[in-house]
Design a protein that fits this description.
Elements lengths: L1 H16 L6 H14 L4 H9 L5 H8 L6 E3 L22 E8 L2 E8 L10 H17 L3 E5 L10 H17 L5 E5 L2 E3 L4 H5 L2 E5 L4 E3 L3 H8 L5 H5 L1 H8 L4 E3 L2 H13 L23 H7 L9 H8 L6 E3 L7 E8 L2 E8 L10 H16 L4 E7 L6 H5 L2 H14 L4 E10 H6 L9 E4 L4 E3 L3 H8 L1 H6 L3 H15 L4 H5 L5 E2 L5 H11 L18
Parallel strand pairs: 3-4, 4-5, 5-7, 6-8, 7-9, 12-13, 13-14, 14-15, 14-16, 15-17
Antiparallel strand pairs: 1-2, 2-3, 10-11, 11-12
Helix pairs in contact: 5-6, 14-16, 18-20
Length: 535
């Protein structure tokens, strides 16, 4: 018996030893792959980490689902030979490309590798990105770019510029067809900035992300202005001032978490609708806080974000452009599990008035939601357009019209709630019934009029007030009369411009019912190539 056991053990060992040896060809494959995956080498990768940044491959692994990334074009090399490039090995030509899954959904990804000649873009590098984009378009899945590049590879001259243009062209072709997301995880300069600018959402990381057309030295030489990387093109600059960045993260891991969260609200492409989540909140939930806000004095401000969170499932709200044009708030919520784009005037900043930045911010968000079949909820508390020489001279007429154009063009379900002020042309613009808001509600506190009562009385009764014995007393009486007649939701409701005046506490239930009803909405537009938005 013991002999038999020993024989079996010997047999097993022999079987193990009889595993086929790795053939020379397989060995060569393993060596080539390992060399390409090593990036710029241990020293360059260590420098990347020492600067507080992850490597390209670590970034991909941190972003996508575990064990889901399939790399393509790992063994691509540059064809350029000038300036000693034929004597260098540029691993994977400085960019990692492939497809993977995020929260179970297929996506295409590329990540520029700063450890390989500063992540600079040559023709082969560009065509790898283009192949990933072409795959994303063909498969109808989102494309995510992790950008960390010094810009065009000077050694390749016009070929690197041509590579950029190939990417730009695909960005435009993919626009409105598949979601495009850019994460700036290092420098992004010169022509490199235009591809992210053409995508739907731009993420930046505090302290390590920089975007600019020309660097601080060129700026100083050309204009005499002194600046550093942060003030010129850091995350805070683009999040607050330029509006280039839609999201800012505290770290790269936080950035990837936010990208994953955003994707949950989006469809795979324009032919689909966002995947609903399992409802975890009562669709008929009432809100005492909304009643409280509705009862506030008209001169008192509040944060529209508080209203939005009261409406959303689980009080969750993913805000877009959080620090830019804060007088208009945009973002995503879920209502009974369905993804909804929400836009609201914010009385806490500029009294909620529309200015140039807010109009362009809102227009871009409306366009995105319309392109990807995401219904729109508009919360109105707008005293008008922000006045002043600066706004007029900067083009508030032309640029403010972009929001109007976007709403008029949008064919997704549109539900509007007038909370308080809705004055003048801004009332029309904010998804009013006249520009085809589908279902329009108003709170009892709504004031829908050409202008505020005080301004209207001063114009309408100018002569009478001048002749009055007690002008202030008479003005107060006239303001009260005007408010009762015009600065309320009931004139608008009388004409059918408001479908229903509702108690504020019931807003969530009313909006959910309206969106359920509008789910099958279809609109046939006029036969034309495209309109001409006032750019």
């Amino acid at each position: 018996m013991a002999n038999m056991e020993n024989a079996q053990k010997t047999d097993k060992h022999e079987k193990k030893d009889k595993r086929p040896a790795v053939s020379p060809k397989i060995q060569e494959l393993h060596e080539r792959k390992a060399k390409a995956e090593a990036g710029g080498g241990a020293e360059k990768l260590a420098a990347q980490k020492a600067s507080g940044k992850m490597t390209a491959r670590e970034r991909v692994e941190a972003l996508v689902d575990d064990d889901s990334f399939e790399e393509i074009d790992l063994l691509v090399e540059t064809k350029a030979t000038d300036f000693g490039l034929d004597q260098k090995y540029l691993a994977a030509d400085g960019v990692v490309t492939g497809f993977a899954r995020i929260n179970g959904r297929p996506v295409c990804v590329f990540a520029q590798d700063f450890s390989v000649v500063g992540g600079s873009l040559g023709l082969s590098h560009a065509m790898k990105i283009c192949k990933a984009m072409d795959l994303a378009i063909s498969a109808g899945v989102p494309i995510i770019g992790l950008c960390d590049s010094g810009g065009a590879r000077i050694q390749e001259g016009v070929e690197s510029l041509g590579g950029y243009a190939e990417i730009f062209y695909r960005n435009v072709q993919a626009s409105g067809y598949i979601p495009q997301i850019s994460a700036i995880l290092g420098p992004c300069a010169g022509g490199a900035v235009y591809s992210p600018a053409l995508t739907d959402f731009v993420f930046m990381v505090e302290g390590t992300s920089h975007m600019f057309i020309t660097g601080p030295e060129v700026v100083k030489a050309a204009t005499g202005e002194t600046c550093d990387f942060e003030s010129l093109g850091g995350a805070e600059t683009h999040a607050k001032l330029s509006g280039v960045a839609h999201f800012v993260a505290g770290s790269e891991h936080d950035c990837f978490r936010q990208i994953r969260e955003l994707l949950d609200y989006l469809p795979q492409n324009c032919r689909e609708t966002p995947k609903p989540a399992m409802p975890a909140d009562d669709p008929r939930r009432e809100s005492a806080l909304l009643d409280e806000i509705s009862g506030l004095d008209a001169k008192k401000s509040y944060r529209i974000q508080d209203v939005i969170r009261e409406l959303g499932d689980g009080h969750q709200f993913l805000q877009v452009h959080r620090n830019f044009a804060r007088n208009l708030i945009c973002g995503f919520i879920r209502l009974d599990g369905e993804s909804v784009g929400v836009i609201g005037n914010n009385p806490d900043v500029l009294s909620g008035a529309l200015d140039i930045d807010a109009s362009e911010k809102g227009a871009r968000f409306v366009n995105f939601c319309d392109a990807f079949n995401i219904p729109l909820l508009t919360l109105v508390d707008v005293p008008g357009y922000w006045p002043g020489l600066e706004q007029e001279h900067a083009g508030i007429i032309r640029r403010g019209a972009k929001l109007l154009y976007a709403y008029c063009r949008a064919t997704v379900p549109k539900v509007t709630v007038v909370l308080r002020k809705a004055y003048g042309g801004a009332y029309d613009v904010m998804s009013s019934k006249h520009i085809r808001g589908d279902v329009n509600f108003a709170w009892p506190s709504a004031e829908i009029a050409v202008m505020g009562p005080q301004g209207a009385v001063n114009i309408l009764y100018k002569s009478e007030l001048k002749a009055a014995k007690d002008p202030e007393k008479r003005r107060a009486e006239l303001i009260a009369d005007y408010t009762a007649k015009f600065a309320s939701p009931y004139q608008a409701a009388k004409h059918g411009y408001v479908d229903e005046v509702i108690e504020a506490r019931l807003t969530r239930a009313k909006v959910i019912r309206a969106l359920r009803f509008l789910k099958g909405k279809k609109v046939q537009g006029l036969p034309k190539k495209h309109g001409n938005i006032p750019l």
